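[User]
Um, tokens okay?
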Amino acid sequence: MFSVYHFIWLGISMALIGLCLWQLKTRKPALKKVLTVACIGAAISELVKTFSMLHMIPSSNGSQMHLYMEMQHLPLHLCSIQLLLVFYVRFASDSKMRETVLAFMYPTCTIGAFLALLLPSIFPESIQVTQAFTHPLGYQFFLYHAMLVILGLYIPISGEIALRWKHYYSTMGILAAMAIVSIYLNSMFAVPHYVDGELVSVDYSTNFFFTQRTPIGIPLVEKWHWYAYLAVIISLAVVLIGLFFLPFRNKNRKEETV
């Protein structure tokens, strides 16, 4: 990250986000139309990621070859889960649940995808920085996350969803539940090593929702380090998501006084 290739992709992504939002604000298409495009883009993105990350791996004795995709590419990151939510809100009928999910997507698509663009986890876990423009994953990663930022910001711009301060609490609740589940998933997909029934090491673990380790490589050696890191990301979520809903709190108060 923070290489010349990364900055070029950041520039492309920011330009794409700015251009698309300008067009959307000018034309003001129905949210359902934007979600239709997002469904197509998300499906193509997931297919590109899946087929570009499949590998033929030999068995330990070399007698067989297995088609395999590494566990960190499973669609269990926050931005990957948005794919399912995009399809849900596109095809679900109007309801409180759909409104709650759209309200959840507003800050989480925007913040989560923007942070992913700033701190791309694909380098160097999945591809080398020099492959940023020669490997399909580079295009998939940056274009998909740019699309999520656009979609997240267009939800309030469309004016079709009555965002309320109460959605801040529902969003934090959903996000907290997902984060807790991610701790279990990271342990489930880990590769532990036992000796005589005793756990002696862990050779690999996923990092869904970044609840396992930091995205910037700061080592967490002691358990209290992890608790401190957890406190930091919880505080960031509380503040950043709160800032996204704060304008609607003030707006709701003004409406109530009229």
In short: The first strand starts at residue 55 and ends at 58.
